[in-house]
Hints:
Number of domains: 1
Helix content: 25-40%
Number of helices: 3
Distance between the termini: 37 Å
CATH architecture: 2-Layer Sandwich
Oligomer: single chain
Radius of gyration: 14 Å
Shape: elongated
Amino acid sequence: MVTFENHIGKISVSENYLTEIVRHAVCDCFGVADVCNVSTFRSAVSSISNGKLFKRRGVVIRTDKDGGLVIDLHIKVTYGTNISAAVSSITHKVSFTLEEAVGVDVHKVNVYVDDMNY
């Protein structure tokens, strides 16, 4: 559960809701074939990192010390996709979508291209 406070009051949002918003935003981006599973090693490293950690299929959402979100995405791209352009698009779309839907600040979006669909 992510809880933050704004001028309206205290708001709590479940990690499932955040994860599904992120997954839908990512899958709508051009060149993204799917969201990949997070590797076991990456999960172990993330679980001992600072902040609270929410881990779902291909999406790791954690809060930093300032209360903003840090999102790690593991994706599969289609062959021939300009990866730099796709990553830039994903970063902006995920940040905009979460800030618009939930009102929480997204401090960082890390995109890892794990696989390619031929």
